[in-house]
Amino acid sequence: MCGIFGYVGTKQAGPLLLEGLKKLEYRGYDSCGIGTFDDGQLHVRKGVGKIDEVEKTEKISGVPGTTGLSHSRWATHGGVTSTNAHPHTDCQKSIAVVHNGIIENYQELKKELQTKGHRFTSQTDTEIIAHLIESQAAGTLAEKVRAATLQLHGSFALLVISTNDPHTLVAVRNESPMAIGLGVNEFFAASDVMPFLEHTKNAVFLEDGEMAVLTKAGVTFMDVKNGTILSKLAKTLDWDSQSATKMGHPHFMIKEILEQPAAIKNALVQDPEKLDRFVTLLKQHADVKFVACGTSRHAALVGRYAMNQLSGKSAEVYIASEFSYFADQCTKDTLIVAVSQSGETADVLVGLRKAKAKGAKIASLVNVAGSSIDRESDVCLYLNCGPEIAVASTKAFTAQLSVLYLLAYTLAGQKNAGIAHLKEVARHAADRLPKWQTQTQKLAESWTQHEHVYFLGRGVNFPVALEGALKLKEISYIHAEGMPAGELKHGTLALIEKNTPVILINPHDYTFSDTLSNGMETKARGAKLIGLSDSANEAYDEYIALPKMPELFYPLVAVLPLQLLAYHAAVLRKNDPDRPRNLAKSVTVR
Ligand code: F6R
Q1: Which of 23, 284, 472, 587 is the most buried (most CB within 10 A)?
Q2: What's the average model confidence in pLDDT over 497-501?
Q3: pTM of the model
C-alpha cells in the first residue's frame, strides 16, 4: 500500500508535498517522511505516526528546495520505526527513494550489495533500491534507475531524486499505481491523482514497465525494458478537488455516509454505449464470475442476487484473494466482473490477469477512472460517487449496488423501471438519514461494554449482515460476525449469552418470518434483539425502522443505519473512523 507523492517545479516542495501527502494518508499512516534536493544536497525528515503528528514533532515540511518526494507508510517489511520510514538513502546520502509495493528479491540483492560494501540502516526492502541505484555505472539518474529497476522483482511504484541530477524526479511503475500530473512549469507524480488535483487536472497514468523523468521543463516517458521514449496521452480529470475535503464534517466517513442519496442517483448516470456493451457481455457469456474483496465483494453478492432474480442469469462470486486458485477454470466463455472502489486492489488485478490469459473477457465497476482495473478491462462502468477518502467504504458500496441494480434491470429489459425504483430509494434514504443518525448514536452509547455483536440476514439481506459486521469491526474494533440467519444454529449460537447484541436485518419481505424465528432463537438464549425492518415486532428490544420499498432494494437502505452505528461506536470509543488501525484503503499488495 503506502502513498507516494513527488514534485518538481518552482514552488517550495515541502509544504506542497505535506498537503498532498495528507490526501494519500488513507493508503497507510504508520509513519511518513519528506525528502528534497537543495543547494547541492538532500534533506530528509521522517518519523513515526500520522502525518500531522510527525509534522508537529519533526517539521517534515520544513525541508528546503523545489524538488522533492514524500511517503506515507503502511509497513510490510520492517517494523514501524523512524529508521524504516521513507525516504531511504544510499551510502553517500546522494540518492533518496520512496516506494510503494514489495521487492520480492530484496534479500538476495541486499546480500550482493553488502558483499560490495554497502551499509544498510533499515530493515526495509526499499533501502536496497537506493543502494542498487548507487551501485550502477555512470549515467544519468534516469539511466541508473532504469538499470536498477531491471533487477527488481515484485510490485513497485518508485520515486527517486539525486544530488547528481538536480531538479529531476524519476518515477517508475510496476504493478503499483502511478499517476503523473502535468502542470505549467511544475510536474507531479503520485500514487493517485488526489494530491495534485488542486494544481492540475491533466494526468498521464503509467502502465507496468513504464517510467517518467520529470524536470521543470517537462516530462519524458520511457519503456523500462528497452529505454525507448514513449508518447502518452494525457487524460483530463473531472473530479473536483473540493470533494476531497471534509466540508465541515468532523470526519470523511460521516460526510461520505451522508452523501449516499446523491451517490445512488449519480451512479445511474452511465454512458449508454458502455452500459449496453456490459450487458451484451453478460448475455454472451454463460460463465459469469464476480471477483472482488471486502465491501466490494458484499456489493457483488447483492448484484448476483439481483441479476438472478430479475433475469434468471446466474453467476458466482469469488473472494479475489482465493480466485487465483480457480482462475485456471476460466475459458473464452467466462466473463469476469471485477468490482473495486479503488480499481487498484492487487488480488483483483492478479485474478483478472490470470482469467484474461485463459481467454476470459473483463467487465468492471470502479470508482477511480484511469485506475489499473479500468485500463485492463474490456468495458468499465464508473461509480461516479467522487473520491472516497475514509478507509471504511460506504458511499462506494451504495454506488456499486446502484450500478449493479441498473445492470440487472437493463439485462432484464426493464432499465427505465429500475432507474425509477432507484431514484425512489435515494429519496427514502435522504428522508430517513437524520432519524437514523440520532437513533444509532443512542444505540452505540449503550454498547460501550459489548465486545461481540452478531448480524443476521437471509437472501438478499445476507450480504448486508456481512457488511454491517465488517464496518463495525474495522472502525470500532468490536468483534462482529455477519451470517445467514439460518446458519446460526449450526455453531455460532453457542456464543450467544445474556445481553449479546444481535442485529436482525429483517425487512417484511420473503425472508421475514424465517429470519424472525432465528432472532427468537437468540432471544431465548438472552440476546438483545435489534430489528432493522419496515415492520415493528414485539420481539425487538430495539427497532430501527426502514421505509417500505420493493423487496430487492432493502440492502440499499438497510446498510445506512449499520454504517452510522459503526461510525458512532468508533467515535464513542475514541477511535479515528477515517484511519482505523492496521488498515489502509487501497490494498495494492497481496
Ligand atoms: C471495507 C473496505 C475494504 C475494501 C476492499 C476492496 O470498508 O473498504 O474491505 O472494500 O479492500 O477495496 P476496493 O473496493 O478498492 O477493491
Answers
A1: 472
A2: 94
A3: 0.83
